Amino acid sequence: MRSLIDILELSTEEIDALIDTAQDMIARPEAYADACRGKILGTLFFEPSTRTRLSFTSAMMTLGGNVLGFSEAASSSASKGESVADTVRMVSAYSDIIAMRHPKEGAPLVAAEHATVPVINAGDGGHFHPTQTLTDLFTIKRKKGRLEHLTVGLCGDLKFGRTVHSLIAAMSRYADIRFVLISPEELKLPGYTRHEYLGEGKSSFSETTDLEAAMPELDILYMTRIQQERFAFHDDYLRLKDSYILTPEKLKNAKPDLCILHPLPRVNEISVAVDDDPRACYFEQAANGRYIRMALILKLLSEKDMPDQNKKSQKEISLDGAVCQNPRCITTTEQELPQRFRCVDREHGVYRCVYCDGRVYPKANEKA
Ligand SMILES: [Zn+2]
To answer: Per residue in 79-127, pLDDT tens?
Structure first.
């Protein structure tokens, strides 16, 4: 049985097949109207995300299935201190597949290890949100007809934006992708993300602080929100905030077939004056989310009886006394979970928490 926690658990061939299925679902909706008849999706949302929850609900209902669940932790037994493992054991008895959102990073992995049905990560803290990335890829494929040979501009908060990190990870596996990273100095792409996905000739990239200067070469422009609280000095925020707001003026030198994306919700980073521009694809992107989630639900349900051969291949190691220091990690609230690590780069001594991918610095020697 297979779950989906991280977008990289899907090969590019599988992503291409999901996109083909989603396209077919749009073209021939009647062929899928009963595809999940009698099946139940459990939506376990330990933090509210109305947009994502409605997208999953709509996806399952369009497939003829049913949905049950909760939309915030306060209305679940988590508020009484029930562990994630116990919650999913219970919900596995009532549903055929689970979509889970949790504020703690790694919680969906814990769920997948204890559920007897497939688990889809619907967002865990600042960590992963694979169905958002699938939505992004599906939208790019629909608009451009390809996922290769593209110049992709990523603009805004590249330091904390998980959607940006996942999109880079997913797209750097396609041929001839060039990334243009557009952000203030304070919010540049972190070094580890750059090293893991862009380093050593994996994909070419350039960095700039100037959105307008980068505009003419872009095929895709992915906008993200810049949050005021990310800046140490309010003056820096005031100085920078307007330079990353997309306006018709800034689009003057853009390609006529540019595709503008945004994971939504937006606050003010794209002016509403851009909405009527045919290059604005972000509302269509939200609509696409339903179809790619339908394709994913169908795939995981149809592969339910098959063994999972796609788990991360890196072997787990034990590190004497090491504890994950990430305050957003699920191990900080569920203290009965064992501390588990994997070695990412033995040469440079890079170890990461299995749950949240947070880096750990072992004091003692590792044991095999
Ligand atoms: Zn952790």
So the answer is: 778 899 999 999 999 999 999 999 999 999 999 999 999 999 999 988 9
Domains of the chain, residue spans = 7-129+287-302, 131-284, 316-367
Distance 49 CA to ligand 1 centre (A): 23
Dist. CA 88 → ligand 1 center (Å): 20
Distance 168 CA to ligand 1 centre (A): 22
CATH 1.20.120.10 fits 7-129+287-302, yes or no: no
Strands laid side by side in the 97-102 sheet: 66-70, 40-45, 97-102, 119-124
Residues serving a catalytic function are: 51-52, 80, 101, 129
- Write the class of the CATH domain 131-284: alpha beta
CA of 125 to the centre of ligand 1 (A): 12
Tracing tokens 């170890």 back to the chain, one arrives at 351
- Residue 150: which region, alpha, beta or left (left: phi > 0; alpha: psi -120 to 50)? beta
Whole-model pTM? 0.93
Answer whether CATH 3.30.1480 is correct for domain 316-367.
no
**Residues with beta carbon < 5 A to ion ligand 1?**
324, 326, 329, 353, 355-356, 358
